[in-house]
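Subject: Protein entry, chain in single-letter code together with its fold tokens

Category: Structural biology, sequence-to-fold work with a learned token vocabulary.

Notation: Tokens come from a learned vocabulary of local backbone shapes, not from coordinates.

Start of record: The labelled sequence and token lines come straight after this line.
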Amino acid sequence: EDEQIVAEIMGRRFFPDLIAYKTWEGFHFAGHEIRITEATDCYGAVVWPSALVLCYFLETNSKQCNLVDKNVIEIGAGTGLVSIVASLLGAFVTATDLPELLGNLQHNVLQNTKQKCKHQPCVKELSWGIDLEKNFPRSSCHFDYIMAADVVYHHPFLDELLQTFDHLCKDDTVILWAMKFRLENENRFVDRFQMLFDLEMVSNFPSLNIALYKAMRKGRMKA
């Protein structure tokens, strides 16, 4: 079953017939052909398999995870694929990442959502752990969903990442988080994450080493 679903997920990706001056990949999600421009010289500007896993979940579970008119933030949006799919599924989306990635992110989001979405998504800078209250004040920012794909890997900002999840998450916020397990770092982060949040594995794909989690603040999952 794992291999069958993984084949279906990866089958949503397609490549251009002709080599263009800009590197791009294509994806079929939410009834649309999505074209993503990538930057091969930047780690955050490539589509990783975890993003496809999360997009597939959003599309195939649209009844239990109805995004229409929901307020969604994606952290570490990278190329923007998850944010684009959430927008096409009816959410009001804020796609965030580091300042050096915002140009490519904005390009992809605009190209794939303009006049196609109920709510035009916005792109905003978010450096994990920095100026969180200034840029996303708790009093006025309320997100129904926080989405993240492949944000945990070998980088020195895991404390700041956890701080960012904590700041953005209200009592009724749902976190949807797809993660590829590579090193012991990932397991340690999951342990620390569970000190603040209840975690439920929604899907597991051993052949990809990717798990998809749903999380809420402690004590809220069954409330």
